[in-house]
UniProtKB/TrEMBL annotation:
Keywords: DNA-binding
GO molecular function terms attached to this record: DNA binding
Organism: Sphaerochaeta halotolerans
InterPro entries noted in UniProt: ChsH2_Znr, NA-bd_OB-fold, Thioester_dehydratase-like
Protein name per the record: DNA-binding protein
Sequence ranges assigned to domain ChsH2 rubredoxin-like zinc ribbon in this UniProt record: 10-39
Amino acid sequence: MIDFSMYDFKEPEIMAYKCEKCGTLYYPAPMICGKCHSRRDPVSDAHWETFALKGPCTLLTWTRLWNLPEGYNKKYLLFGIVQFDNGLRASGRLETDNPVTGMPLVATVVSSDERPGKPVNVFVFKEAE
Ligand SMILES: [Zn+2]
């Protein structure tokens, strides 16, 4: 038997949260719902529904980052903040040559090992087809 447990074959995902009581959506998840004060158990996420945050979104604002640390073979990186149809906002890497505020994008998630330590899932926003 080969032990596959160290491999993660699942597509990387970033989860958003839905308050069990009032249905308010959150990303990232708070300890306590800001609307109805329902408490989330951070270990088990008991009763709070989770769902993968991805898909169509709109670019709210963006910035170009120059002077990247050693190890990058690009001159700059683009970062953006987007809003999803459900109202949630997230920040991540922007992969488009001509970012325009208000443009439609598609949010995907990649596993990134750019930072030291364990790989983390980050958003990558691409131009909508
Ligand atoms: Zn609530």
